[in-house]
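Exercise 7. Given the encoded structure of a 333-residue chain, write a plausible sequence.
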């Protein structure tokens, strides 16, 4: 029997500090970070996706950032293909893959080795649904999705046209609910995985989110969106439907004021964090560790996290020789 490759996943809601903790793990155990963020894959989308600057990576190699043009279509199937390849290369170097991100389907694709070849794409049906969304309104399609697949509808915002259309497309084309693919009983995937979930008091996280949105605005989010539009990124494309970007487009068109745009981004980001919590809470494989209201782990909690990681690495026979390689690289940089 072939030995499964190890991965350590760090998940949780946006703004909770997944990137920083992933770097700490990589530094301690000789790892490389694999991004599992469906918007950080796009080049030129840096401020609004809170993409780390090279100096913030502390010498740790990061993968699957800036791998797609924001004007192109990029599927979860393509991300998984590239992630599997990158993880294999990291393991071949004797390093630990640390998968970091809040895109639940990306994480699940790795953990359960999901096969997307059976997920139909019907361009004619999709175009018809898009026309209906324009003529009847997105809410009409959302109501239909609620009737056809209430479980999937509960995980989609009523105004998220792209995901509503896709869910209806799959449900109608396949004849079964899209949520049928979301059975949470753990499956035997191709990886030996430890999944660490980071959480913190909700109100404290919401305050962090609000401050981060204000900082993004100050750092030049509006100019970033202007550059993307000038480069031909379509307003109705997947990239421009990301939180922070679609609201800036509305601001640039004069539909909302600057204050209103910031408020809506904050509100939509908080709602997104809530959906991420709900998604990951459903997965029994996630081992949760709680930060305090100040955004730091209490001493006993961070000790528990490191003990959990040590036990996992010991169970899979991770060589202690691998652990110092990234630390040496950090000290030499």
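Solution.
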């Amino acid at each position: 029997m072939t030995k499964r490759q190890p991965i350590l996943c760090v998940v949780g809601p946006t703004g909770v500090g997944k990137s920083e903790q992933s770097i700490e793990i990589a530094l301690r155990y000789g790892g490389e970070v694999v991004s599992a963020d469906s918007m950080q894959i796009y080049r030129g989308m840096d401020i609004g996706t809170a993409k780390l600057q090279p100096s913030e990576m502390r010498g740790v190699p990061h993968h699957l950032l800036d791998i797609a043009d924001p004007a192109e279509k990029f599927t979860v199937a393509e991300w998984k293909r590239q992630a599997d390849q990158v993880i294999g290369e990291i393991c071949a170097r004797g390093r630990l893959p640390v998968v970091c991100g809040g895109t639940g389907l990306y994480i699940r694709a790795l953990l359960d080795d999901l096969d997307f070849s059976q997920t139909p794409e019907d361009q004619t049906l999709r175009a018809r649904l898009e026309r209906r969304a324009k003529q009847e309104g997105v809410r009409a399609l959302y109501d239909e999705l609620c009737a056809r697949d209430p479980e999937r509808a509960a995980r989609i915002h009523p105004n998220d046209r792209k995901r509503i259309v896709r869910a209806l497309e799959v449900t109608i084309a396949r004849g079964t609910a899209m949520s049928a693919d979301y059975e949470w009983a753990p499956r035997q995937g191709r990886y030996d995985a430890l999944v660490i979930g980071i959480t913190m008091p909700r109100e404290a996280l919401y305050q962090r989110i609000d401050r981060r949105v204000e900082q993004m605005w100050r750092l030049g989010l509006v100019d970033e969106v202007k550059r993307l539009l000038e480069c031909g990124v379509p307003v109705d494309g997947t990239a421009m439907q990301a939180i922070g970007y679609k609201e800036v487009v509305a601001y640039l068109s004069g539909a909302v004021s600057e204050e209103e745009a910031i408020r809506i981004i904050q509100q939509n980001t908080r709602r997104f964090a809530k959906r991420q919590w709900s998604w990951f809470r459903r997965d029994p494989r996630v081992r949760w560790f709680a930060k305090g209201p100040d955004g730091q782990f209490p001493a006993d909690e961070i000790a528990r996290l490191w003990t959990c990681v040590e036990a996992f690495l010991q169970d899979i026979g991770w060589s202690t020789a691998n652990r110092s390689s990234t630390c040496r690289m950090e000290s030499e940089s």
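Remark. The chain has two domains: 5-117+192-332, 118-180. Students should compare their own answers with the one above.
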